């Protein structure tokens, strides 16, 4: 498998190249040059695989044997999941009410679905670091969960430093403490007086400079990194087989949506041949919903809500989705219009093809709160605010539209432990797990990025210091 830019011109790149160079020279994002086809016979065979076995199988389709031999690839995936997740199935699927299931993607070390991919991504990075005797600095901007997951996944690797930015006051207390209580020398955390989109702009201004990326061995393990998308494809297949007894029948998967990395993975699974329908659910930060439903991409100012991973108005992976359903030319035209006008129309061809698999739904604060209460009071099942957007749709879905689906699955993206303030607000009783119980008692380490300061310069100076330190130790 080789990789190309969503904006054209750049192609024939290896997995290793795109693992470390997440944006193309023309500012695009990397995608596979072709999507593997999975026929009905293969679907039947895959239905018996464990999650880890499926992860090895699907990764093999996107990484050549020459780059990572099968024995090494299997070892990487095995290491990523050994003694890391607290459930033997990795992703248990619970039937909550009627034909609505919930896939619990949050049994990893930081209680978020990001753990599924990031445990693998950092193993891939370390594999090539050892092979090439090099050091990497990973840059991450987070709206909540990615930061702690990325930090946890790299902290044991001395050949990887991480710089993590989070928006001050926008994350839950637990989310923030999961980042700021990590004292390891290779972890550099910044609390910024801005929103998630502001942080993305700063990091992309660095990561889209090939000279800087090459000189200082920079990468990102945000969803801009293709390897994260690749691993997220796996849970669509795995969850499908947990719900569908007859491979070939259609399953409806409901995806709480932020930057659209998870949705991109679902679209690829669909194009590979997985019989699914996907509904993206958002909170009031509904750029994705308006783009899919009305065809207009028009980001507004992001609002802070109780679902911080959704407090995004510029979903960075949307151009990947457009690329999948049209092509590089359409991506270029779409982006050109957006840069000129601050808004853009979703290309007609892309919208037509997307409609076969994608729909969307936006949920208000009141609707999120009400479904969280209902889930606990009626079904004794705790859900976090992000999962609540999916549950709201699942429990109010149009039965005619979805009659052809044999099951409906909400992807639950985070554990309720991460949102204790919301539980308290709703008077829902809950005993926090040991993973978060004593976080507030731990010392913290982080720096602040204040309004008016040159954030880009501060981050660059941190990169320079990391590089100098690595050279002195070598």
UniProtKB/TrEMBL annotation:
Q: Give the matching Gene3D superfamilies.
A: 3.40.50.1100, Threonine synthase, N-terminal domain (3.90.1380.10)
Highest taxon of the source?
Eukaryota
Task: Describe the location of the Threonine synthase N-terminal domain by residue ranges.
Answer: 2-81
Q: Name one GO molecular function term.
A: lyase activity
Which cofactors?
pyridoxal 5'-phosphate
Q: Which GO terms describe its biological process?
A: 2-oxobutyrate biosynthetic process; serine family amino acid catabolic process
Keyword Kinase set for record: no
PTM annotation (N6-(pyridoxal phosphate)lysine): residues: 114
Domain Tryptophan synthase beta chain-like PALP: residue ranges: 102-318
Q: Which family does it belong to?
A: Belongs to the threonine synthase family.
Instruction: Indicate what this protein is called per its UniProt record.
Output: Threonine synthase-like 2
List the taxonomic lineage. Answer: Eukaryota, Metazoa, Cnidaria, Anthozoa, Octocorallia
């Amino acid at each position: 498998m080789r990789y190309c830019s969503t904006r054209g011109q750049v192609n024939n790149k290896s997995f290793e190249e795109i693992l470390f160079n997440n944006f193309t020279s023309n500012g695009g994002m990397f995608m596979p040059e072709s999507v593997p086809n999975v026929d009905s016979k293969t679907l039947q065979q895959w239905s018996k695989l464990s999650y880890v076995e499926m992860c090895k199988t699907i990764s093999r389709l996107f990484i050549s044997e020459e780059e990572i031999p099968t024995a090494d690839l299997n070892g990487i995936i095995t290491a990523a999941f050994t003694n890391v997740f607290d459930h033997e199935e990795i992703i248990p699927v619970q039937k909550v009410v009627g034909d609505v299931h919930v896939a619990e993607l949050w049994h990893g070390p930081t209680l978020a679905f990001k753990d599924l991919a990031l445990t693998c991504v950092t193993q891939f990075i370390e594999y090539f670091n050892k092979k090439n005797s090099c050091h990497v600095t990973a840059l991450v901007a987070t709206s909540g969960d990615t930061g702690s997951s990325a930090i946890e996944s790299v902290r044991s690797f001395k050949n990887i430093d991480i710089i993590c930015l989070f928006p001050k006051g926008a994350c839950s207390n637990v989310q923030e403490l999961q980042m700021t209580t990590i004292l390891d020398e290779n972890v550099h955390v910044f609390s910024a007086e801005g929103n998630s989109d502001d942080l993305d702009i700063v990091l992309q201004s660095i990561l889209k400079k090939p000279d800087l990326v090459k000189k200082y061995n920079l990468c990102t393990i945000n969803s801009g990194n293709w390897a994260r998308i690749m691993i997220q494809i796996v849970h669509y297949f795995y969850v499908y087989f947990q719900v569908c007894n007859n491979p070939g029948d259609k399953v409806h998967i409901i995806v709480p949506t932020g930057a659209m990395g998870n949705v991109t993975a679902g679209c690829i699974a669909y194009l590979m041949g997985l019989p699914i329908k996907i509904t993206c659910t958002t909170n009031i930060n509904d750029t994705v919903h308006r783009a899919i439903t009305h065809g207009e991409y028009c980001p507004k100012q992001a609002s802070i809500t109780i679902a911080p991973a959704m407090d995004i108005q510029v979903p960075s992976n949307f151009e990947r989705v457009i690329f999948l359903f049209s092509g590089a030319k359409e991506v270029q035209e779409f982006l050109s219009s957006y840069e000129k006008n601050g808004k853009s129309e979703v290309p007609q061809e892309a919208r037509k093809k997307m409609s076969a698999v994608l729909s969307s739904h936006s949920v208000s604060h009141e609707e999120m709160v009400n479904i969280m209460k209902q889930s606990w009071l009626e079904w004794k099942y705790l859900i976090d605010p992000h999962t609540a957007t999916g549950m709201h749709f699942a429990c109010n879905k149009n039965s005619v539209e979805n009659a052809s689906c044999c099951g409906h699955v909400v992807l639950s993206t985070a554990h309720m432990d991460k949102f204790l303030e919301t539980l308290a607000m709703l008077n829902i009783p809950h005993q926090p797990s040991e993973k978060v119980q004593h976080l507030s008692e731990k010392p913290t380490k982080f720096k602040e990025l204040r309004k008016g300061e040159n954030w880009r310069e501060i981050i660059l100076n941190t990169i320079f210091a990391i590089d100098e330190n690595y050279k002195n130790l070598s």
